[in-house]
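ok new one. same drill as before - structure tokens go in, u give me an amino acid for every spot. 508 of them this time. try not to just spam alanines like last time pls lmao
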């Protein structure tokens, strides 16, 4: 790997190496630019990962955050990763495409906001990402017959088969889920062989055989091969600026010592919480007053049921079946809609979610006795942006002196109506499949929207190309720039936006 001196003025510093930072780093390096990525966490090798849920906590961002509101969100393993590869180290690799209707929600349904870019502009980047990370998926996608995936689908597990049976009985269409997991051995450029899925249910604990498309086995090797430098264990806590307001250096702490890297440009890709937290701490790029506002989290209720035969849901990829039949439900009293996916989780994860939903004591223990006979269904639903849902700072500081984040989040009437509709749907599916002991887990997922992208500098933090309205050599690219939540899980869209932002920066 190439190494730059801190006194060198590099073309760009990329803060964060997840779904936003890694593709940008690769694109800029391929263009011949001198680029340095700073990652707060360590560098993990695939063989460092473990299926043990407790030991795997080292890949989660567990630095303290305060969570408030009527529907406070759980962080850590739910939506935040740390290490070279960011949250893609532990993401579930479920990667449906964003739906065109979700990008124009306000125009179509009079709620939320529209995206300042079109679906047609985004799709070529989506397809490029799918080809490069080698997404597995069905040959016939019912909601988009022209769609083609690079690899055949990953094998279904028992919860997927049971969900399919229930959906079939109700006339709900399903198919194999698009998965950022290779279904057979493949050669990944500049990394090597990524082994085909070994039917492990421990996807969220990291992937020992690199079947999952985390950034450390896809875009980051590409970046390093073209001259990029990655510095692990480098926690950014400052940005130096000149008299004109342009950023001239990034300040970070590594092994207890502060360093500064001179740079001509900065790409901030820390995620929906950390990007906004850094800007608020530095009082930067916030003339609109929108940094930290419009926080969104997907309604992500789960419904679980017990079956008369073992399901062994820890085997196989956890989310191997999808339905998009409810992206726009016919009879509804809310804007937007939701995706449905099959679920299988490991026991500690299930028990934790049950406790958070109020299932405790004897009831909790009785249900867990039948863990190997349970199967789950979950949704990912639309969340409307609201200024009252926001990230602010508290007086308590972290290990580098940055004030910690407090995230207040409450469902609006729209999210509550969507949540109720989705739970009714999932209960009906399990009833049709013959499930017993059905129970609901209330939850949200992902962290989006705190540095909104838009055409109007008075209501947005960055322009449609990801460039700050206030600091002309600062770009932001992660799910913080999402104007609305979209229904699809965010990682695929983040990667596509990253390539688009890099191309706009390069003048393409």
């Amino acid at each position: 790997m190439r190494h730059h001196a801190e006194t060198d003025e590099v073309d760009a510093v990329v803060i964060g190496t997840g779904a936003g930072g890694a593709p940008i780093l690769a694109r800029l390096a391929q263009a011949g630019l001198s680029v340095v990525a700073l990652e707060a966490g360590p560098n993990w090798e695939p063989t460092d990962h473990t299926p043990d849920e407790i030991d795997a906590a080292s890949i989660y961002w567990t630095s303290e955050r305060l969570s408030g509101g009527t529907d406070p969100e759980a962080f850590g393993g739910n939506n935040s990763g740390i290490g070279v590869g960011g949250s893609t180290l532990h993401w579930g690799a479920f990667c449906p495409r964003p739906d065109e209707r979700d990008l124009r929600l306000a125009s179509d349904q009079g709620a939320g906001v529209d995206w300042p870019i079109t679906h047609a502009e985004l799709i070529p980047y989506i397809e490029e990402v799918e080809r490069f990370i080698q997404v597995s998926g069905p040959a016939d996608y019912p909601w988009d017959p022209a769609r083609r995936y690079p690899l055949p689908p990953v094998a279904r597990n028992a919860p997927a088969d049971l969900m399919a049976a229930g959906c079939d009985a109700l006339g709900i269409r399903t198919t194999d889920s698009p998965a950022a997991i290779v279904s057979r051995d493949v050669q990944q450029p500049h990394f090597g062989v990524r082994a085909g899925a070994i039917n492990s249910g421990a996807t969220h604990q990291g992937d020992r055989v690199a079947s999952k498309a985390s950034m450390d086995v896809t875009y980051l090797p590409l970046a390093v091969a073209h001259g990029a430098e990655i510095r692990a264990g480098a926690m950014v806590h400052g940005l130096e600026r000149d008299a004109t307001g342009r950023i001239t250096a990034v300040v970070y702490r590594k092994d207890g010592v502060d360093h500064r890297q001179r740079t001509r440009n900065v790409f901030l890709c820390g995620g929906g919480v950390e990007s906004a937290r850094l800007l608020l701490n530095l009082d930067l790029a916030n003339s609109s007053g929108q940094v930290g506002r419009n926080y969104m989290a997907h309604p992500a209720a789960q419904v679980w049921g017990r079956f008369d035969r073992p399901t062994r849901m820890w085997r196989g990829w956890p989310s191997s079946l999808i339905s998009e039949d409810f992206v726009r439900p016919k009879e509804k009293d809310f804007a937007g809609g939701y995706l449905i996916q099959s679920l299988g989780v490991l026991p500690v994860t299930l028990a934790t979610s049950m406790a958070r939903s109020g299932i405790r004591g004897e009831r909790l223990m009785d249900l867990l006795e039948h863990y190997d006979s349970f199967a789950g269904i979950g949704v990912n639903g639309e969340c409307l942006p609201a200024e009252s849902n926001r990230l602010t700072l508290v007086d308590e500081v972290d290990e580098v002196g940055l004030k910690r984040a407090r995230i207040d989040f409450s469902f609006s009437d729209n999210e509550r109506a969507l949540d109720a509709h989705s739970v009714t749907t999932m209960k009906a599916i399990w009833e049709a499949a013959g499930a017993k002991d059905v129970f609901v887990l209330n939850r949200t997922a992902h962290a989006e929207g705190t540095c909104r992208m838009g055409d109007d500098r008075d209501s947005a933090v960055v322009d449609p190309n990801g460039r700050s309205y206030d600091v002309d050599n600062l770009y932001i690219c992660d799910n913080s720039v999402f104007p609305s939540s979209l229904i699809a899980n965010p990682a695929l869209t983040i990667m596509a936006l990253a390539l688009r932002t890099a191309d706009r920066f390069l003048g393409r």
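The domain at 12-505 is CATH 3.50.50.60 (FAD/NAD(P)-binding domain). and btw The longest strand covers residues 247-254.
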